[in-house]
Design a protein that fits this description.
CATH architecture of the largest domain: 3-Layer(aba) Sandwich
Organism: Roseovarius pelagicus
CATH class of the largest domain: Alpha Beta
Number of strands: 13
CATH superfamily of the largest domain: Type I PLP-dependent aspartate aminotransferase-like (Major domain)
Shape: globular
Strand order of the largest sheet: 2-8-7-6-5-3-4
InterPro entries: Aminotrans_V_dom, PyrdxlP-dep_Trfase, PyrdxlP-dep_Trfase_major, PyrdxlP-dep_Trfase_small
Radius of gyration: 21 Å
GO molecular function: transaminase activity
Number of domains: 2
Distance between the termini: 41 Å
Protein name: Aminotransferase class V-fold PLP-dependent enzyme
CATH topology of the largest domain: Aspartate Aminotransferase, domain 2
Order of helices and strands: HEHHEHEHEHEHEHEEHHHHEEHEEHEH
Structural class: alpha/beta
Largest sheet: 7 strands, mixed
Keywords: Aminotransferase, Pyridoxal phosphate, Transferase
Length: about 400
């Protein structure tokens, strides 16, 4: 049984909480990028000091450099329940998605269809939508304009034998509702379509077992999961080896190189193993046993339990104010702690006022322009977004609620 998260131990693993320049400030823009954990910083520094050479050569520094890069891919893939070569790194999730879209454009036939949503961050919908200019059909799975909810029954009406791919977010970066990935994936697979899930907004709240959940592609960003600025992509072998190679021709037999045309960032890939170090330390501290997948599942539940408990008071505060429109569910168990509030004035203006109270938050459209427009919100005015992760504590939430009282 999963116990209670030791948040003091967690915060001790993040140097930002020891930084004098950040003292007294509560960080509520984690959806834009999280603090980096100590093992990642230490690995990155060590790589630049000791291993900053071309990797995979026989001399010692190079051999160790290559081993650390391989270690990152091997350990993270084990946590996510997939084979090591089914996980690859790219410069960003946006870039990874663009490369995938080019591969699908070469693989599909004119008249084939792709389904996208208007709940997404633009990075997971724009590259797919552009395929309409090349003779492919793009169908939009629309959100409910009041709630922002994606109804799987609406997806069923869009599926037929022409659909090759269904793209949707694990959760939206403004609506926050956690979409039922397993159910949606099963619907798409039953219709003969592959599935691409944008996990950028969900992964900070716990790495998921992609192998068990079933999507063919799962993408997220390491800089939002306590790591360096890298995009991480899982693509299952059955699909990955069908799609045309986008890398060097002589690497086409290597799955993890097929969709990374740019040269890898050696140091940042090696430093990504620090994320696995952090999660292993977290599991050991909390007495969590089992193999990589089992430990990861328990950590996911531990982190989510802490976040849900902190999130509900913020949701209750927002839904009870007439001047505030809370986007997404009011039940913390149904969503990630990414809370967008539509207000009578621009979200960025309110974020500026909150900064005077030691609250670090953001305002704007957050590249979710289509979602905001669908919900009747002017992207130019945007929303105030308040987002946190498992290292946030109750005192910071109280600080936020007091600041909102003053600023609203």
């Amino acid at each position: 049984m999963v116990g209670q998260l030791d948040v003091d131990y967690v915060r001790a693993q993040f140097p930002a909480f020891e930084e004098p320049s950040l003292k007294g400030q509560a960080f509520f823009e984690n959806a834009g990028g999280s603090y980096t954990c100590r093992p990642v910083i230490e690995r990155l520094e060590r790589y630049y000091r000791q291993r900053k050479v071309q990797p995979y050569a026989p001399y010692e520094a190079s051999r160790l450099a290559g081993e650390e890069m391989d270690e990152a891919r091997t350990r993270l893939s084990a946590m996510m329940g997939v084979a090591a070569d089914e996980l690859s790194f790219g410069p960003s999730t946006t870039q990874n998605t663009y490369v995938l879209a080019r591969a699908f454009a070469q693989w599909m036939q004119p008249g084939d269809a792709i389904i996208v949503t208007n709940q997404d961050h633009e990075a997971n919908t724009g590259p797919w939508r552009r395929l309409a200019d090349e003779g492919f059909v793009v169908r939009e799975w629309k959100i409910d304009p009041e709630t922002g909810h994606l109804n799987p029954e609406d997806l069923e009406n869009l599926l037929d034998d022409k659909v090759r791919l269904v793209c949707f977010p694990h959760c939206s970066n403004v609506v926050g509702e956690v979409n039922p990935v397993v159910e949606i994936t099963a619907l798409a697979h039953a219709a003969g379509a592959y599935v691409c899930v944008d996990g950028v907004s969900y992964a900070p709240h716990g790495f998921v077992n992609v192998g068990l959940m079933g999507p063919d592609i799962y993408l997220f960003s390491a800089y939002k999961t306590y790591g360096p600025h890298q995009g991480i992509m899982v693509i299952r072998r059955e699909l990955g080896m069908q799609l045309p190679n986008q890398g060097h021709y002589f690497n086409e037999g290597s799955l993890y190189k097929r969709f990374t045309p740019a040269g890898p960032d050696h140091a940042q890939i090696a430093a990504s193993a620090g994320m696995a170090d952090y999660f292993d330390a977290l599991a050991d501290h909390h007495g969590i046993k089992g193999d990589h997948g089992e430990r990861n599942n328990s950590l996911h539940d531990l982190m989510r339990g802490h976040e849900v408990a902190l999130l509900q008071p913020l949701l209750d505060y927002a839904k009870d104010r007439n001047s505030v429109r809370l986007l997404g569910p009011t039940n913390a168990a149904e969503r990630a702690p990414t809370v967008a509030l539509a207000l009578s004035r621009p979200g960025e203006s309110v974020a500026r006022d909150l900064a005077e109270h030691g609250i670090m938050a953001g305002g704007g459209d957050f590249y979710a322009v289509r979602a905001l427009q669908a919900m009747g919100i002017d992207p130019a005015q945007g929303v105030l977004r308040l987002s946190f992760v498992h290292y946030t504590n109750r005192a910071e939430v109280d600080q936020l609620l007091n600041a909102l009282d003053d600023c609203l």
